[in-house]
Automatic annotation (TrEMBL):
It comes from Seriola lalandi dorsalis. It holds the Pfam family Hat1_N. Coiled coil: none annotated. GO terms for biological process: subtelomeric heterochromatin formation. Its EC number is 2.3.1.48. Histone acetyltransferase that plays a role in different biological processes including cell cycle progression, glucose metabolism, histone production or DNA damage repair. Coordinates histone production and acetylation via H4 promoter binding. Acetylates histone H4 at 'Lys-5' (H4K5ac) and 'Lys-12' (H4K12ac) and, to a lesser extent, histone H2A at 'Lys-5' (H2AK5ac). Drives H4 production by chromatin binding to support chromatin replication and acetylation. Since transcription of H4 genes is tightly coupled to S-phase, plays an important role in S-phase entry and progression. This is Histone acetyltransferase type B catalytic subunit.
Length: 408
């Protein structure tokens, strides 16, 4: 038994955390290749390496996936200090290279010198599609930086190959990511690029992107649905997500055939970002004026948000609640109580549905079955959960209001 434990300990030395082992870079200059400061790592690798996010069979494993900043030409190398087969004859290491090849499209190089030579071609790279929006961000180090948002589709020359390289980042930063069938012409692609200077030339670096699928709505409308959105880690926290979402929203608002704009299985972070952008867009609408907010969520708000900004009723309701919170003196007990009841009225929806289901159950369940279901819908528990939900919602709303104040 002691021998088995010793063997297990020795084999455990050949386990590597794949989130640490995978080294990603967006390379602009040759010196970036050896600069650890430009390296970033995945948040997730379970889709490639399993739920444990571990690769077995190597010590000092490093999986290099380096991309040129604009065109995303790729260097792929696997390095390690030792391999399990050097010590144990009958133990097979994981096929790390094979797993990565499953998601990285053909055309990459494994030679660092060849990769560095590809940087010279970056000057030829130009953003795909149509320019929708330009904006600037102030950087302490670099001053004013200029960014562009472009709309592209699969017919753009070279875009399909570029997108295949770009979407590999999804696997590392979106927990439930999957690749899309980009051949379907109902996909729209929105891309963010940074303009930067290198040796007197203007070059473009990939910052992030969004994919949107255009669903048909009877009889003659479409419903764009956001599928994927990613700002690459070196650019996160700089406001690019909000700029991208607002530009996309404004683009679809300009199309008369669009019914409204939705998102597929949105994350909590996406919902907060959408709330911020929609409040920013709606706060100037007459129906959302401060003197209208205390009167409650109105049909005028629903209609104006829908007609002018393609915002559906559910999203317009959240916008109303945020703007009303901003306009409410929460130190005034009566006004605070009115606001709390207004929000809880919406939050109570799922609990009201449970009560309707309970009424139906009374007609068809035996007494002992009914008791077990009633236990799940205890009134006291409902009130406690409702209060918790309210506090979480208000906390999120306050953060959005604070962000709006800093942008004013």
């Amino acid at each position: 038994m002691a021998g088995v434990n010793t063997m297990e300990k020795k084999l455990a030395e050949y386990k590597c955390d794949t989130n640490e082992a995978i080294c990603l870079k967006l390379v602009r200059f040759p010196e970036d290749v050896d600069d650890d400061g430009t390296t970033f790592h995945p948040e997730y690798s379970h889709q490639i390496f399993g739920d444990d996010e571990v690769a077995f069979g190597y010590k000092g494993l490093q999986i290099q996936l380096f991309y040129t900043a604009g065109n995303l030409s790729t260097l792929f190398k696997v390095k390690y200090s030792s391999k399990v087969t050097e010590t144990f004859d009958c133990v097979e290491p994981d096929d790390v290279e094979g797993k990565i090849r499953e998601i990285v499209p053909a055309g990459f190089t494994c030679n660092t010198d060849d990769f560095i030579s590809l940087l010279e071609k970056e000057a030829n790279f130009k953003p795909f599609g149509t320019l929708l929006h330009t904006y600037t961000v102030h950087s302490e180090e670099a001053g004013e930086l200029t960014y562009q948002i472009h709309k592209a589709d699969i017919t753009c020359s070279g875009f399909q190959e570029y997108h295949e390289r770009l979407q590999t980042f999804l696997m590392w930063f979106i927990e439930t990511a999957s690749f899309i069938d980009a051949d379907d012409d109902r996909w729209d692609f929105f891309l963010v690029f940074e303009k930067y200077n290198k040796d007197g030339e203007t070059l473009y670096a990939t910052v992030g992107y969004m994919t949107v699928y255009n669903y048909y709505v009877y009889p003659d409308k479409t419903r764009p649905r956001v599928s994927q959105m990613l700002v690459l880690p070196p650019f996160q926290g700089e406001g690019h997500g909000a700029q991208l979402l607002e530009a996309v929203h404004r683009f679809y608002c300009s199309l008369p055939k669009v019914q409204d704009i939705t998102a597929e299985d949105p994350s909590e972070n996406y919902v907060k970002l959408r709330d911020y952008v929609l409040v920013k867009l709606c706060q100037g609408l007459p129906s959302f004026a401060v003197d209208k907010l205390h009167l409650g969520f109105s049909a005028d708000m629903i209609k104006e948000a829908q007609d002018k900004l393609k915002i559906n009723k559910k999203h317009a309701r959240r916008v109303y609640e945020i703007l009303r919170l901003r306009a409410t003196d929460m130190s005034d007990e009566e006004k605070a109580r009115e606001y709390r009841l207004e929000v809880k009225k919406r939050l109570f929806g799922p609990y009201r549905k449970n009560q309707r289901e309970l009424t139906k159950m009374r007609k068809c369940l035996r007494p002992e079955e009914l008791v077990s279901h009633m236990g799940q819908m205890d009134t006291q528990t409902q009130h406690e959960e409702l209060e918790k939900s309210y506090q979480v919602v208000v906390e999120d709303y306050r953060r959005i209001i604070e962000r709006l104040a800093t942008q004013a």
